[in-house]
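In the previous lecture we treated proteins in isolation. Real proteins rarely work alone, and many bind small molecules. This record shows how such a complex is specified: first the sequence, then the SMILES for S-adenosylmethionine.
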Amino acid sequence: MGRRNKLKKFNDLLSFTNVYENYDPTNPRLIANENTVVDLKGKWRSEHFKNDNPLVLELACGRGEYTLALGEANPEINYMGLDVKGARIWQGATRAIHQELNNVAFLRTRIEQIGLFFGENEVDEIWITFPDPFLRESKENRRLTSQPFLDRFRPILKAGGIINLKTDDPTLYEFTQETFAACDFLDVIYDRDDIYNQPLDFPELEYKTYYENMHLEKGRKIKFLQAKLKK
Ligand SMILES: C[S@@+](CC[C@H](N)C(=O)[O-])C[C@H]1O[C@@H](n2cnc3c(N)ncnc32)[C@H](O)[C@@H]1O
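The predicted 3D structure, ligand included, written as tokens:
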């Protein structure tokens, strides 16, 4: 994508009422549309969604296909897609506006900063869809299912809240099996190394993201893990 096209999308994002941004780790201010500074930590339901429905996050949402599909299927649940890349979020946010999905919003930030923007027990469920596997061992702690990230998710997730990982990558899958099993506040409740070799146990597994479609074209097997927060 050309630089001008990207800049136009970044500029558009500032006018979207379904997008919030913070990409400066040294300055944890949340920017809403028209450059307004807001504080929605612990208040997403009441201040943004204006309801008391559950709140579900998709992390590393890219273009937000999962967030949109879940939001369309479940209008009584609030969904937020988080990613650091503005041009990708632009695509999801634009579709949400066109489809009038008022239960869908996006936050452009690094997931490392998630604790700055969500309050204690504010989140009901987390989806992590095809995250970068960071295959070099020296980068293990950048994997979104590594212990440092699980420690960030713990306070914001309700007791009984679920973390879902959908991935094509065998290294990330096995790594996550190990981190979930070793984590004293999680119970693994579902684990499949090839979800499409049998009828799907959950209808939402049918939704496919941009990256999932690429992996399927290459014949890769899709893996799915679910863990529940004990607290
Ligand atoms: C491989 S893409 C997957 C995107 C989407 N879930 C899909 O399946 O099409 C990984 C995404 O994770 C985002 N990402 C990686 N590390 C991140 C981080 N620490 N914080 C926020 N986003 C991150 C990237 O910007 C990218 O959009």
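Summary for your notes: The CA atoms of residues 55 and 78 lie 5 Å apart. The chain has one domain: 3-229.
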